[in-house]
Amino acid sequence: MCMMNSSMKILLMSVWFVSCHCHSVIAADSPKLPGEMGKFVENHCVACHEGEAAEAGLDLTKLNGQLENQATLDRWIRIFDRVHNGEMPPKESHDITGAELKTFLNQSGKWLNDFQKERWSKIGRVQGRRLTNLQLERSLHQLLGVDIPLESLMPEEQRTAGFTTVANGQPMSHFQLEEHLKVVDAALDNAFQRAILNDQLFKKKFDAKGLVRKNPKRRTREPELIDDFAVTWSSRLIFYGRIPATTARKDGWYRFTIRAKSLNTPKDHGVWCTVRTGKCVSSAPLLNWVGALEATDRVQEWTFETWLPRGSMLEVRPGDDTLKMGRFQGGQVGTGEGGPQNLPGVAMESIVMEEIHYGLDDEGIRETLFGDLKVKAKGKDWQQAQLQSTNHKADAKRLMLRFAERAFRRPINKEDVQPFIDLVFNELDAKTPLLAALRTGYRALLCSPRFLYFEEPPGQLDDYALASRLSYFLWNAPPDEELLKLAESKILSSQDEIRRQVRRMLNEPQGKTFVKDFAAQWLDLSEIDFTTPDRRLYPGFDVIVQQSMLAETETYLEEMIRKNLSVSLLIDSKYTYLNERLARFYGIKNVSSDQMQRVSLKPEDHRGGLLTHGSIMKVTANGTTTSPVLRGVWVSERLLGVEIPPPPAGVAAIEPDIRGAKTIREMLEKHKSNTACASCHVNIDPPGFALENFDPAGRWRERYIKIKGRKRVPGTPIDASHELPSGEKFKDIKQFRSIVAAKPAELAENVAKKLVSYGTGAPVTFADRTEIEEVVTRTSKNNYGLRSIIEEVAASELFRTK
């Protein structure tokens, strides 16, 4: 009980830390509109924006100048932007001189900019922010040397401005504090157990006889033995292909080496198979993705690594939805039933199952926790072990100080750590064994706000704070030894050094995680499995296609960073990355192998650029229909940098409609007759219609498809033409891509904004715009290369200050 109370006290310090350091309020009188602003608004705006009938619900007679109110600040920024972009006041309704417009924009721009800069000088641009779930997991992994998937133990996070890293979307409630404590306990228990018990890692090779059903006469869902191979046929039976022999005896990471070939192989490709894990019973129906393989007529070998909870097993089966599917009665498969049906199948020669560890080995964890102290285990209960020490308090203090410096990611003030040391001493005085007392101390340190939160006082970040910001930006993990040494030498804050470190860090093995982590939120790739395309409308889509789509996008972005390619390739290119299964799904020929490979595109492929990737098409549709509005908003905000405000109250949404593009256009034209809607739809509709030729599964289509009876029948032809706000017209996605890709500076600006939001924890706002423009200008000499943008964002003043 004492341990719980002590740790909860430390956790509650987090709430105090946030309230004292993150939510300061500036007391100020509500200022009047500066200079000629009030006169401009009165003369040119109030006539349309007054009272209950005010256009777009904006009553300027009630909008004051108190910018401390975030909603008021946002309104004035929106007003500035609409005037700056020429959207307001309407040209046909007012005779406004150029001098009046210039004066209004200069005065209002300076007013907004000065207010934000003044506020930031006191409290910082970024609120106090904490580690995200992913960052907490990787921090505990690095600190303790463990590798268990801790993120799955935490409550789901909300995304603000698209990212979980944004500070003002990171609440810290008592519930979340308790959940944090559970995660810390899970990590510590695993570390202490491995450090003390030093369990032997499991390894076993299963031949075909070891993989198949135990009773050949029994109808089951396990593989059957044919010619010394464990065989599973193509079928839609759930869990068919489960292999009970691979059931994990304990939670852990496992490496599976599979040797297999195909049976009844199709003429133009192999038998694509899924490798998944789960309990494979009706009470636990979910399966976890591990990987895919394309089996051919000759035996090949594949290696997969996955986390396997105790009681879960491997499932290996043909998973290509285009294959001929078997018919089996009663939900079970009898020996020999698949052969007469001439079904494609996978024949496994053997599987090697090997328990592995990432991070430190057991000896490394032992040194991390106990230093040079010897540990004496007693049986299989690690809590009964004893740490051998001649001076408990001296050894505990030494280990606590060492652990605190690593946990807090900077040199420590011994006075700040003393309360944690006193906690351990109190435990020792109460006759608590050194092992348990030390665990209590480590637990308290990991509940400290200095571990859970980023230590970033207002103003310029010191080198250690910059090291953490840089490492969590690119790795979502604590700084490594090189970053900490540079921080100690006080040379990390040099802009040239930051650029060098970005290049180094992206080239490190950890750097491979940057694309996956960033794209999961920026492009919503984490939501790709939220919907499943209707099989009747969009046949051929399967989990292998979906995972290949993710690999296409991630591999494409990795190459853009590695080769520092222009951001124009986000919109248009003449190549992509495919494997045989995804190429066949797209209708692209002459691609073989289950490995992702660079493929040159032809005009008839209708693809090019990340914009046309299947992953993007899928996350912007609902599985049944497409909506130009939903896709248009997504493309505008994620790729084009055009923020779309929420729709006005009382305006009905346009629902997706597969009756035909003409019908959708008519609905949207009527929708746009509402002036409150028109200003947004001028940006939303063009990219939305440009993508209408792609169905919810990511395939190209010339017409909408409908179901009539049990048949798919072609519907209305698709019209993807539209006009951009600039007046440029396009007839299809190809012309749209050409127009947009020709403006790389605008694309670079959007990417820079997303990186700043993700990396600093605060969305880009009005006073950031000048610095963003400077970032983009500095990348122009490298043709707005994606890696250059990352480097310049990290070297910018925005990134190097709180």
TrEMBL record:
Superkingdom to which the source organism belongs: Bacteria
Domain Cytochrome C Planctomycete-type: 45-92
Domain DUF1585 residues, every copy: 726-799
Domain DUF1595: from-to ranges: 396-456
Location of the DUF1588 domain: 607-703
Keywords annotated in UniProt: Signal
Domain DUF1592: start-end pairs: 461-588
Stretches assigned to the DUF1587 domain: 129-192
Any Pfam family matching the protein: PSD2
Name assigned to this protein: Planctomycete cytochrome C
